[in-house]
TrEMBL record:
Keywords assigned by UniProt, alphabetized: Dioxygenase, Iron, Metal-binding, Oxidoreductase, Plant defense
InterPro entries: Haem_peroxidase_animal, Haem_peroxidase_sf, Haem_peroxidase_sf_animal, Oxylipin_biosynth_metab
Protein name, as recorded: Alpha-dioxygenase 1-like
GO biological process, one term: response to oxidative stress
UniProt xrefs under Gene3D superfamilies: Haem peroxidase domain superfamily, animal type
Molecular function as annotated in GO: heme binding; metal ion binding; oxidoreductase activity, acting on single donors with incorporation of molecular oxygen, incorporation of two atoms of oxygen; peroxidase activity
PROSITE patterns membership: PEROXIDASE_3
């Protein structure tokens, strides 16, 4: 596919500097897989029977079989004897989902769009203009502006049932975030400058995917893998930065056997999927968002080399420009890791996810979440808080940055005496 080969294939790896690490990249992969499907039939119930060695040691009737540390949310059947296993599970899922949504809103997104204006905007979405201290003391006061979207008296759906759109799916195609290899760190030494561990070895990404990857990662171990990803910047969302190993991907069956036909992921998602699903091309996409369309390639980017390749592929017809190519080529706002066009869709859906959900509005209370669960949601401000809960040794020893989504050896945010809402945009 000419579009993918000429405009997307990685020629030289470009990363995001200290702004975003590989944990930030894996976080959004985790989120997208939870958010998006394409009308698959999810009504059919499938019975899963645990192997004997699992069933004997960890009966499925017990809440304790859930492996993730955060999922238990700090309570069990001893603290809530009136709740059966199913009710415990449902409360735990609700609490964990809310913590994830909060981290995504006021931590991950803030690092992705690293400006004071977006920091203020995301915190207003959750806490309102009156702020966290006021809301913690007096509860939700006023409408969405003063008190935030979270805690509104009732959901707001603007007359349309909530759903994620195909346009949303398209702007969240971010495989450029993936590097060519993971730099494993030596965690058995004293931390260096800014809590940085020395490099140990470099593992190519193809060795970390599929069944082979499962074996490799099990040998690496969770702590080394997590610390290594925290200290490595992810790829930048730009032209000619799509991982070449994803353009010759060996797909596997469920039994681990390699399929004979390799997959060019760049051509598949950048061109075929958007065109097949009738997602507008770049210029019409901007018109649909009431943004100014481009009339010449120079409106899109100042990169002369990129302009030459765009002309080679599309000629002078800017209307033919595929959406992903345009999003990657577009000159970015200072501090933004994504394009302005993508940002508009992000902005709309970030608010919509909160205001349309009764568990963030009318049922955002102790009755729905339990007292302890509601406290867990309200006191968690970042992924770093979660790490401090479950892996304090990682956080204390290896993280120098303010956010766990920034490269961990970056300096913490400097204190600013000017209140957030009074700062001038930089």
């Amino acid at each position: 596919m000419v579009v993918a080969t000429k405009l997307l294939t990685r020629t030289q790896y470009k990363d995001t500097g200290k702004q975003l690490n590989m944990i930030a990249a894996s976080w959004i992969q985790f989120m997208i897989h939870d958010w998006v499907d394409h009308m698959e039939n999810t009504n059919q119930q499938v019975e899963l029977i645990a192997p004997k060695e699992v069933a004997n040691k960890c009966p499925l009737t017990s809440f304790k079989f859930y492996p993730t540390k955060e999922f238990s949310t700090g309570f069990d059947d001893k603290e809530y004897p009136a709740l059966n296993d199913e009710e415990l599970y449902r409360h735990a899922r609700l609490i964990t989902s809310a913590v994830i949504a909060k981290i995504h809103t006021i931590d991950w997104t803030v690092e992705l769009l690293k400006t004071d204006m977006l920091l203020a905007g995301m915190r207003i979405n959750w806490y309102g203009f009156l702020g966290k201290k006021f809301k913690d003391t007096f509860g939700h006061v006023g409408g969405s502006t003063l008190g935030g979207l979270v805690g509104l008296k009732k959901p707001i759906n603007h007359g349309v049932p909530y759903t994620l759109t195909e346009e949303f799916t398209s702007v969240y195609r971010m495989h450029q975030l993936l590097p060519d290899s993971i730099h494993l760190r030596n965690i058995n030494v004293t931390p260096g400058l800014n809590k940085s561990p020395p490099s140990l070895e470099e593992v190519p990404m193809p060795d970390l995917i599929g069944h082979k990857g499962e074996k490799t990662l099990s040998q690496i171990g969770f702590t080394r893998q997590f610390v290594s990803m925290g200290h490595q910047a992810c790829g930048a969302l730009e032209l000619c930065n799509y991982p070449s190993w994803l353009q010759d991907l060996v797909a596997q069956d469920v039994d681990g056997k390699d399929r004979p036909d390799h997959v060019d992921f760049a051509a598949l998602e950048a061109v075929y999927r958007d065109r097949e699903r009738k997602v507008a091309r770049y210029n019409q996409f901007r018109r649909n968002l009431l943004l100014i369309p481009i009339s010449k390639w120079e409106d899109l980017t100042e990169d002369k080399e990129a302009i030459e390749v765009l002309k080679e592929v599309y000629g002078d017809d800017v209307e033919e420009l595929d959406l992903m190519v345009g999003l990657m080529a577009e000159k970015k706002i200072k501090g933004f890791a994504i394009s302005e066009t993508s940002f508009i869709v992000f902005l709309l859906m970030a608010s919509r996810r909160l205001e349309a959900d009764r568990f963030f509005t009318s049922d955002f209370n102790e009755e729905a979440y339990t007292k302890k669960g509601f406290e867990r949601v309200n006191t968690t401000e970042s992924l770093k808080d979660v790490l401090n809960r479950h892996y304090p040794e990682i956080s204390k020893k290896w993280i120098n940055s303010t956010s766990a989504f920034s490269v961990w050896d970056s300096p913490p945010n400097a204190p600013n005496p000017i209140p957030l809402y009074l700062r001038f945009p930089s």
